[in-house]
Amino acid sequence: MHWWQTGIIYQIYPRSFQDSNADGVGDLKGIIGRLDYLKSLHIDAIWLSPIFPSPMRDFGYDVADYCDIHPLFGTLADFDRLVAETHDRDLKIILDLVPNHTSDEHPWFVESRSSRDNPKRDYYLWRDPAPGDGPPETRLPNNWQTHFGGDAWTYDAHTGQFYMHQFHSSQPELNYRHPEVLPAMLDNMRFWLDRGVDGFRVDVIWLMLKDEQFRDEPPNPHAGPDARPFDRIDHIYTASVEGIHDIVRQMRAVLDEYDERMMVGEIYLPVEQLVTYYGDSDECHMPFNFQLILLPWEARAIGDYIRQYEAALPPGGWPNWVLGNHDQHRIATRVSQAQARVAQMLLLTLRGTPTCYYGDEIGMEDVPIPFEQCMDPAALQQPDLFEVWGRDPERTPMQWDDSPHAGFAAPEATPWLPLAADYGARNVAAQDGDPASMLNFYRALTALRRAEPALNRGAIEVIDVGVDDVLAYRRTWPGRDGFLIALNLGGRSMGINLRAVAQTSDMEIAISTTTTPNKLVDAGTLALDGNEGLVIRLLA
Ligand code: NOJ
Fold first, then answer.
1. Sorting pLDDT into bands at 50, 70 and 90, what band is 520?
2. Mean pLDDT of 190-202
3. Measuring from each residue's beta carbon to the nearest atom of ligand 1, which residues come in under 6 Å?
4. In the chain, which segments carry CATH 2.60.40.1180?
5. Ligand 1 atom showing the smallest separation from residue 62 Cα
6. Residue from 27, 12, 10, 31 nearest 416 by CA
7. 430 vs 19, 203, 391, CA distance in Å?
8. Is the separation of the CB atoms in 127 and 153 below 8 Å?
9. Residue 275 has what pLDDT?
């Protein structure tokens, strides 16, 4: 087994983790200072959202130089120290690679837009205005839309053509049909692999190739009347376009030049398409499985999906699960604080690599941010929808203690986003010393996962307990204790029959979401309180 299979990945949003120089933005030295905390979580790898030079229009997902560190975060020397200190603690470090687009300040784009015959012109996707009357800037090349709202084409008056972007207009998309572009990006990967990074999370990997003929996308037959323009079309010419798997394979081949490196791809696709990105064990080590974010929080829906996903995995395809990230509302807000522990118990006991989002281990919630204080370009471009699409609420500073700015930044600093109102009570320091805290509950789960082969590599079987709201599954490994996980995703007490699973005398409660768990077990029946989850050891 590889480290990225048995281990736990922890996502850090560097701007919000720890500021060391009072500029209100987190940085690499801040992360170094928190490595011992990370180690205490029994996680195995940290993934850093982008830390490269960038005008920060999309907070680093607009890269102006793939081979350096943004001064806000520090220097290459700081980065080398971070790698060394991370490895000293037997942790891995994964960087965010953003190959689909650059910043419009990247030298390639500066050159590309300078003239139509610049050698880098076709590094990007340039198109003439469509034929017709009217000013050229109104004659869009086709109907493609951006994920952030608005047309996917921006007119450049200097050369009289449009360039293509599926995100912000400052994120022009690279042309992977140009023979020099992929080799250049692969070299960017080698730059960091040579510096010791253990892998990449690859941004929007399934979008990297676009239709060669730039055809209009057809209407989406499933779009409701209120759908955004982006959702009203079916993205058959901008997503998972034929040829994409060849690009992914070439990226994977670079990782395979090194020992024990990995790549996890950001891919929002239905499961049967998602799993094609494993390739023949020659594409992504893991395509991110986001269904715990997208599915309704219902026992049957999740149980059915676990079975469906497991069945869809190709031979050698290792599963993975995600509850939250910097693009999604926080899990404790989505499913309620009452369910936050149940959610972590689910994530940390499923079969496959869990990716945790910073702050979820203390139950951090979305921080309401009024439109006037919005920073996120996706929200600013869609003012009517900013509560749905705005991503600032889940990106607020980590809550370390009850001092000013929650210990995230020095008192004189102004944090780049506001702190949660509840940070005085909900913070690492307060929870650290409290055996009943969410933080120590999380640590108990991660420690158990690490210690038990049934949990970190064993088989999974979803058990139909025939009770609404309860999701149950068993984890097993030959010759070792197994585990039964029973999660009440609702607020009402439920009794489940355990006879089908094991003899009650052979069981003991390993971890509960409550400090006073229901006692096992009366005549084979387990009573679960509302919002209660249990990990039950099945003695070997
Ligand atoms: C996905 C990233 O997770 C998101 O934060 C970003 O805005 C887009 N890709 C564009 O890079």
1. low
2. 98
3. 58, 61, 98, 167, 203-204, 266, 326-327
4. 457-538
5. 11
6. 27
7. 20, 35, 27
8. yes
9. 98
Q: What is the pLDDT of residues 135-168, one digit of tens each?
A: 999 999 999 999 999 999 999 999 999 999 999 9
Q: Which ranges constitute the DSSP H helices of 238-359?
A: 244-255, 271-274, 291-294, 299-312, 331-334, 340-349
Q: What are phi and psi of 18, to 5 degrees?
A: -160, 120
- Residue 337 CA to residue 39 CA, distance in Å, equals 25
In tens, the pLDDT along 473-493 reads 999 999 999 999 999 999 999
Residue 262 CA, ligand 1 centroid: distance in Å: 20
Taking residues 206-223, what's their average pLDDT? Answer: 98
Q: Which CATH class name applies to 107-164?
A: alpha beta
Q: Which CATH superfamily is domain 3-99+179-207+244-442 in?
A: Glycosidases (3.20.20.80)
For residue 46, the SS3 value is strand
Q: What is the mean pLDDT of the chain?
A: 96
Residue 56 CA: distances (Å) to CA of 29, 61, 170, 393, 408: 20, 7, 10, 17, 20
CATH superfamily of 457-538: Golgi alpha-mannosidase II (2.60.40.1180)
pLDDT tier at 525, thresholds 50, 70, 90: confident
- Which residue type sits at 179? P
pLDDT digits (tens, 9 = 90+) for 244-280: 999 999 999 999 999 999 999 999 999 999 999 999 9
How far is residue 47 CA from its own chain's centroid?
Answer: 9
Rounded to the nearest angstrom, the distance between the alpha carbon of 30 and the centre of ligand 1 is 23
Helix (H) or strand (E) holding 83: helix 76-88
Q: What count of Cα atoms within 13 Å lies in the side-chain half-sphere of residue 369?
A: 28
Pocket test of ligand 1: the residue of 167, 322, 329 to mutate, having most ligand atoms within 8 Å of its CB, is 167
CA gap 46, 59 in Å, rounded: 19
**Helix or strand or coil: residue 54?**
coil
Index of the ligand 1 atom closest to the CA of residue 325: 3
The span from the CA of 316 to the CA of 311, in Å, is 12
What letters, b where the CB count within 10 A reaches 16 and e where it falls short, cover 455-476? bbebebebbebebebbbbbbbb
HSE, side-chain direction, 13 A CA sphere, residue 352: 23
What's the rounded Cα separation, in Å, for the pair 296 and 119?
A: 49
Enter the DSSP assignment of 125.
-
* Residues annotated as part of the active site: 203, 257
- Of 464, 525, 527, which is closest to residue 498 (Cα–Cα)? 525
Q: Report the alpha-carbon distance of residue 227 to residue 229 in Å, rounded.
A: 6
- pLDDT above 80 for 32: yes
Q: How far is the CA of 203 from the centre of ligand 1 (A)?
A: 6
User: Is residue 263 a contact partner of residue 92, using CB atoms and an 8 Å limit?
Assistant: no
CA 319 from chain center: how many Å?
15
Residues of the chain with CATH 3.20.20.80: 3-99+179-207+244-442
Place of tokens 């929200």: 379
